[in-house]
Amino acid sequence: MILWLQMVFSIIWRTEAISSDWKKGILVPALKRKGSKIDCSNYCGITLLSAPGKLFAMLLLSNKFPTCFAPPQQAQIHARKIDN
User: Fold this and answer.
1) Which 3 state secondary structure label does DSSP give 73?
2) pLDDT of amino acid 29
3) Which of 39, 67, 74, 78 shows a CA-CA span of 20 to 30 A to 12?
4) Distance in angstroms (rounded) separating the CA atoms of residues 70 and 79
5) What is the C-alpha R_g of the chain?
6) Which pLDDT tens digit goes with each residue over 24-79?
7) Does the keyword Signal feature in the UniProt annotation (predicted)?
């Protein structure tokens, strides 16, 4: 599976063309709070995307913006609130 993804990602990188299926998503309504299921304001939309497309996007972002996905520095670890 990993070799297949690597091959597909390499082809995408060389050709600069992404499958149209990876650009599509399925919009699913999700109940966001307690209340009437009839009231539309109690719902939010969640878009389900293809897993390979999301993985490719994460790889692109992690290479373009490495500090966004880098592990926290020691000083940042102590500043985070720990939930029990």
Assistant:
1) coil
2) 92
3) 67
4) 16
5) 19
6) 889 999 998 788 888 888 899 998 988 888 888 888 877 776 666 666 666 555 55
7) yes
Q: Where do the DSSP E strands lie in 1-84?
A: 25-31, 43-49
Which amino acid type is present at position 1? M
Instruction: For strands 43-49 and 25-31, give the pairing.
Output: antiparallel
Q: What is the pLDDT of residue 83?
A: 55
Q: What is the pTM of this model?
A: 0.51
Rounded-to-integer distance, Cα 78 and Cα 70, Å: 16
Written as six digits, the tokens of 13 are 């990188």
**Which residue, among 57, 59, 60, 53, has the nearest Cα to 19 in the 3D structure?**
53
Question: Residue 35: left (phi > 0), alpha (psi -120 to 50), or beta?
Answer: left
Q: Is the pLDDT of residue 84 over 60?
A: no
Sequence ranges of the domains in the chain: 19-53
